[in-house]
Design brief:
Layout (H helix, E strand, L loop, with lengths): L14 H11 L4 H5 L5 E4 L15 E15 L4 E9 L2 E7 L3 H7 L5 E7 L1 E3 L2 E5 L2 E4 H6 L5 E4 L4 H5 L4 H15 L9 H6 L5 H9 L4 H32 L11 H10 L6 H15 L5 E6 L5 H14 L3 E5 L3 H15 L6 E4 L5 H13 L4 E4 L13 E7 L6 H8 L7 E6 L5 H7 L4 E5 L10 E6 L3 H13 L3 E5 L7 H18 L7 E4 L5 H12 L5 E4 L12 E6 L7 H8 L10 E6 L5 H12 L3 H12 L24 H17 L9 H13 L8
Parallel strand pairs: 4-7, 10-15, 10-16, 11-13, 11-14, 12-13, 14-15, 17-22, 18-20, 18-21, 19-20, 21-22
Antiparallel strand pairs: 1-9, 2-3, 2-5, 3-4, 5-8, 6-7
Helix pairs in contact: 8-9, 9-23, 10-12, 11-12, 21-22
The protein binds adenosine-5'-diphosphate (ADP) and magnesium ion.
Length: 698
């Protein structure tokens, strides 16, 4: 038997129990069980003096003696109260049940070890139904000083798998296998970071001898867990860099230079220049580029993408931009067409609503190479779409695309096209390390000059009249306004009704012909949506009433007010995205967050954060704290967040150390072939075999 055996090999675990443990806790093998950690410990290492008890102490252990016992009558029955003293103070022990037995067995004025959950009421401490043991008895026994408490489920408890049983299973595993638990880090790493050995770490994580040992064990296991994730990600990146060949864009030629000199409507920000340099270096290297471009809404990612595509064209390649919505694809198409007009570059657009005839033309032009840039939606990855030689694929707002879809783009070519993934959802650095550790990351951390910070306020629904007044004033100044309603799948019918009611009341408040209003939502035909969008883009309408279909990417610089209805129902990153629609022109822009009075603490925090800052990274940090990493965009498919012991938020320091250690290791021993790294290699190979780590594109 070894640790890879199923847990049914452990005494007392029946097939039925094993099935339950697997279903409820994901525990299948002995190894899984060994790596199933307690979420807290009953700490019996410390004896508290009564005077040191705190209202927030939970379980405590105290030595003292009982001086009095009395029964107190209450509404139903009675309770038994003991006065319990130590040299520092006095408190009460309380029983509601089994009073007679307690009364008879308790020895007055003899020292007891008392253990239990502390109550605090009216400045007095008490312990209901404490565990009691005479000190003389206590001293005879070998004490397990910190007892593990394991996560469980109701079902498990009902089937008799108690915490006590779990403890027994794991204890017997450790007794049986302690000697066979293999070290999986190198001696060098262990001594560099003064880590506990693997087997002692496992032992102490379950049955710690002391708080210090527990801390050491936890550190070691967290370090190890993060280290191996980083090692996998970094190895993959290394392989991408060295093994996966990419097209070489050697020439910075006529097209790029002409555009840069004559067509670029503004000078690039330093951040844009830096990112462009990073991209140029990648695409000239002969390796495959796999780069994530992060930049807050409005930071100017599009122009960087266009310049990267021109590099491809200069080298005889085609390029594509894939956008998550038709509206956004159209917008990119318009922008790119305008920017390159007068140059010898053919640009086209392919979306679901392009007619068959036109579609065929596009397919043909792609295959004979006369079409240089194709912009589109999901329609781009249909099987019929074949590029002659796709050199670079830009994927905008990546979180809308699944892994498979990206892989499809890649399948069109002999060599994979360079990939530039653009996202406006900033991810805190440490999280990015875990989720995108195998990608290169560029960040545009600077907004184009002249942007004024969007003024943000939170107003309750009852202030609606003054909001209408404000809207009128802004429209009188020639500004345009977005009015956004939530649309959540689960409550779609209600949400549409709210949207339509809202539209009606706004239409009444802003009557024709003085005011023109656009409305856009998901149930409209694409052509109608586009028509309404265009009216707003051209400035023919002053108000755009919409659901979140406008969330991603629309660019109407004259729109300077964003009003969000029921804003308490939106997530932070969504609110941030929406706000990013304004503040794009030279005028002072505003964001008004409307909400009801009923706000959950989280909703309050979200709205407060929006009012307090416009910094996308700060907002992402708060979002991460509120929702946990598993809910952030892009993390679900990554699998790297199924951490057993480390916490991506709290253990970010360990993460950085682990990552740096992995980097150093790979620099010294790329293939882990050195003798001293054998233990790492063994563990690594085993892990990669079973790993669900997101295989990005490749
Ligand atoms: P995002 O990063 O959100 O995709 P865009 O690429 O749509 O942002 O750019 C937002 C706006 O800023 C566009 O109108 C674009 O023309 C403008 N812009 C981009 N870069 C600059 C710059 N360096 N100077 C001035 N305006 C810029
Ligand atoms: Mg954009």
């Amino acid at each position: 038997m070894n640790l890879d055996y199923p847990i049914t090999y452990i005494n007392g675990i029946s097939v039925q129990r094993a099935a339950l443990l697997y279903a409820d806790l994901g525990i299948k093998t002995c190894n899984d069980l060994l790596n199933f950690f307690p979420f807290r410990y009953i700490d019996k290492t410390t004896f508290y003096p009564i005077k040191d008890l705190q209202p927030n102490s939970s379980e405590v252990q105290i030595v003292g003696s009982i001086t009095h016992l009395k029964s107190v009558a209450q509404k139903r029955g009675s309770r038994l109260i003991a006065t319990f003293q130590d040299p520092t103070g006095s408190m009460e022990l309380v029983w509601f049940k089994g009073q007679k037995w307690i009364k008879d067995s308790i020895k007055i004025n003899e020292p007891y070890v008392v253990y239990g959950k502390l109550n605090h009421y009216n400045g007095n401490f008490s312990i209901p139904h404490p565990e009691l043991e005479l000190v003389s008895e206590y001293k005879k026994k070998l004490q397990s000083k910190m007892q593990p408490v394991y996560p469980s489920t109701e079902k498990l408890t009902n089937f008799g798998v108690s915490n006590k049983l779990m403890r027994a299973y794991i204890q017997s595993l450790l007794q049986q296998f302690y000697d066979k638990i293999e070290e999986n880090l190198s001696q060098e790493i262990i001594s560099d970071f003064k880590l506990m050995s693997k087997r002692d770490a496992l032992l102490n994580a379950h049955f710690p001898k002391s708080q210090e040992n527990l801390a050491k064990a936890e550190y070691r296991l967290k370090f190890e867990e993060l280290f191996f994730i980083q090692l996998q990600l970094l190895r993959k990146k290394l392989i991408n860099k060295t093994k996966i060949k990419g097209f070489v864009f050697e020439n910075v030629g006529a097209v790029f230079n002409e555009f840069y000199a004559d067509k670029l409507p503004f000078s690039l920000t330093n951040a844009q220049k830096r990112v462009l340099k990073e991209i140029r270096k990648d695409v000239a290297s002969g390796a495959h580029m796999n780069r994530l471009l992060q930049g807050d809404v409005g930071s100017g990612k599009t122009i960087v993408a266009i310049l990267a595509m021109l590099l491809a064209i200069d080298n005889g390649f085609q390029a594509t931009i894939m956008a998550p919505t038709e509206i956004l694809a159209n917008q990119h198409f318009t922008a790119v067409s305008e920017l390159v007009s007068g140059m010898n570059i053919k640009v086209d657009i392919l979306t679901g609503s392009v007619r068959v005839k036109k579609r065929r033309e596009i397919h043909a032009a792609l295959e004979d190479g006369t079409l240089h840039i194709l912009i589109g939606t999901h329609a781009l990855i249909e099987d019929k779409v074949k590029f002659k030689n796709l050199g670079i694929a830009v994927i905008d707002e990546q979180h809308r695309f699944g892994v498979k879809q990206r892989a499809k783009l890649w399948a069109k070519n002999t060599l994979p096209p360079h990939i530039l993934v653009m996202t406006a959802t900033p991810i805190p650095r440490t999280l990015a390390m875990s989720v995108y550790g195998d990608l290169d990351i560029s960040v545009i951390d600077e907004l184009p000059p002249g942007r004024k910070e969007v003024k943000t306020v939170h107003r309750f629904d009852s202030n609606r009249l003054s909001v209408f007044k404000f809207m009128k004033d802004e429209i009188a100044k020639g500004r345009q306004i977005y009015l956004v309603y939530p649309l959540i799948e689960e409550s779609e019918a209600m949400d549409y009704k709210d949207l339509m009611d809202g539209f009606e009341s706004v239409s009444r408040e802003f009557p024709l012909p003085k005011y023109q209003i656009s409305i856009v939502h998901g149930k409209m035909k694409p052509a109608d949506k586009e028509f309404e969008m265009q009216r707003f883009v051209k400035g023919e309408t002053q108000i755009m009433v919409a659901t979140t279909v406008i969330e991603v990417g629309v660019n109407v610089p004259n729109a300077s007010v964003m009003i969000i209805e029921s804003s308490e129902r939106f997530g932070l990153s969504q609110l941030h995205q929406l706000r990013g629609r304004v503040g794009r022109g030279a005028d002072q822009s505003y964001c008004i967050l409307l909400s009801s009075y009923k706000l959950s603490p989280e909703a309050k925090m979200r709205l407060k954060t929006m009012v307090d800052t416009t910094d996308g990274f700060k907002i992402a940090e708060v979002d991460l704290k509120l929702r946990g990493p598993g809910n952030l965009m892009g993390t679900q498919q990554s699998g790297v967040l199924n951490l057993k012991i480390a916490d991506i938020l709290k253990d970010s320091k360990i993460l950085v150390t682990a990552r740096n250690t992995a980097i150093t290791l790979l620099q010294e021993d790329e293939n882990l072939s050195k003798e001293e790294n054998l233990s790492i290699k063994k563990a690594f190979m085993k892990m990669t075999k079973s790993s669900k780590i997101w295989s990005n594109i490749s």
